[in-house]
Amino acid sequence: MDKMKKIIRFLEKRYGYPEIGGGSKFRLLVTTVLSQRTRDENTSRAAKRLFSVAKTPEAICKLPLKRIEKLIRPSGPYRQKAERIKKLSKIILKDHKGRVPMTREELMKLPGVGYKTADIVLSYGFGVPTIAVDTHVNRIPKRIGVVNEKAGVEEVRKRLESFVTGKKRFLVNLGLVRFGQEICRPVNPKCSECPLKGVCEYYKKEVVCK
Fold first, then answer.
1. Can 40 be counted among the known catalytic residues?
2. Annotated catalytic residue, options 119, 134, 168, 197
3. Could you tell me the fold of the domain covering 25-126?
């Protein structure tokens, strides 16, 4: 699709490719669980506090649940997240010899791990070319008009991956997240200064036609 090709060229030029496959897979997993239903700055604070005390599944398993709750309190629903993080740490130790599993199916068996979390770990942690669909990746392609507005998360991922192959898939998540924060915001998008307004259905309907 020509529209998707233009989007990919724009993301490539503006944001470039993210770093893939570096750092601790476990910390990436836990950070992504912490990021659920909260803002980026809250995630960063909670992750920094937790990892200053415990960086491995072994270390987290040794912490009392109340201590984990206190450390990750900035992350929103911290009691639920603390329980999930402790449980997934135990499972990784018991069933995976302390290593984060590297298949989507095994990742999604862990507490608190859904499609988005699994795909973020696979792509950023293991370098698997898949597209993680968070709120920005779900919203923006629908707004532009490359994905049906009623599509579910898995349908969005499959549709995008049918257009984008190989390493270019790594552009989509990080690029659309940044684009969604800077320009294509959920409320009051900056349509007048958007470099993609020429291919955007939302711009044509909601801005030009008004």
1. no
2. 134
3. Endonuclease III; domain 1 (1.10.340)
Asked about 134 being catalytic, the answer comes back as yes
8 contacts 171 by C-beta, under 8 angstroms: yes
Query: Hey, where are the domains in the chain?
Result: 2-17+133-208, 25-126
- The tokens for 204 are 């044509």
Say if residues 158 and 104 touch (Cβ distance below 8 Å).
Answer: no
In this predicted structure, what is the pLDDT of residue 19? 84
Q: Which of 25, 86, 116, 142 is catalytic?
A: 116
Q: Which residues contact 62 (CB under 8 A, 6 or more apart)?
A: 54
- Model pTM score: 0.90
What's phi and psi for 15, nearest 5 deg?
A: -115, -25
Q: How confident is the model at residue 40 (pLDDT cuts 50, 70, 90)?
A: confident
Which pLDDT value is given to residue 208?
67
Sign of CA dihedral 109, 72, 60, 99: positive
Residue type, 79: R
* DSSP result, 103-125: SHHHHTTSTT--HHHHHHIIIII
74, 49 Cβ separation under 8 angstroms = yes
Check whether domain 2-17+133-208 has CATH 1.10.1670.10, yes or no: yes
State the residue for tokens 């095994």: 106
